[in-house]
Task: structure prediction
Amino acid sequence: MPILSILIPVYNVEKYLAQCLESVINQTLSDIEIIVINDGSKDNSLNIIKDFAAKDKRIIVIDKENEGYGKSMNRGLDVASGKYIGIVESDDWIEPNMYEKLISTAEKYKADIVKANFFSYTTNNGEKNEKINLFPEIYSERPFSPREKTFVFFCQPSIWSSIYNREFLNKNDIRFLESPGASYQDIGFSFKVWVSAKTVVLLNDAFLHYRCDNETASVKSKGKVFCVTDEWNEIEKYLKDRNKLNKNLEKIIAHVKLGNYLWNFKRLDGEEQKAFLKQFQKEYSKYISENILDKIYFDDKSWNKLLRIIYPKSVSKMIRKAVFDLVHPIYKTQVMGNYKKKYLFGKINIGNKEIPALKI
Result:
């Protein structure tokens, strides 16, 4: 049994695939299996995979018809035999020592999850490779439970900058939502991971280069209006089925979901935006009426702008602008490690106010 199974889902990425596979097979950690799932690619991706597999026996190829990201990832999880699971998207690439460092950390602390920072890579307007800090350096290599330090729920999912204990995933039935052609499955997977984990270790290092300029990425499809809603419905079902949903967790869901909904709303336009806005208004009107969306986590200006989105007289340019410049303090503070506002263990500073962090 290898120490690590690396899952690589593939769909029409011939332009970037070789760089991705080269970076994985050249890891300093050699005790790995590489499970490449071809989801019915119509370009030259499958031939590239076969060429690499012919040269490296650690590569396992799953070639199937197009069924979507969720089914591809679950097929990979079912086949995996490693003690830990890693994920690399086929248009990204990783540093040679990534998995050696993550595995040694997981073994040292007996962690369910080890998560690192990552690089945001783009070639638009010149090549840029910027380190994204998901959390302050003070959290690095300090094991904790997400139930106590809930700021991790607000971090960008970035499921590919982590490794997961496979027994932990299986024990908690953590899988991807298998919506055909859907996007955003990282949201549901990530939330299930955080709510179930007992020991998490974060690393200040960055190893994975996340490509932001792939125009074919599924998340950029405007036709997938309600995929993000499907993910949050799946999360709530997962929690209810396991009797894990409580008031504070509902508040966390409402606030984390808000960032996802604002982003989704912002990328849409026309009738698609209007359709999503109706769902947005329905859910968040309910949250406000039930005191689940807590005003304490907003400054007055941000709260008033949010109300204009949720209770508009009409769908107008004014509302779109309100989304563009809406500041969501808890989200900004806890997700964007380079942001100037600070937060501490167990407390969040918003402006001049010190707010108690939610605990599950």
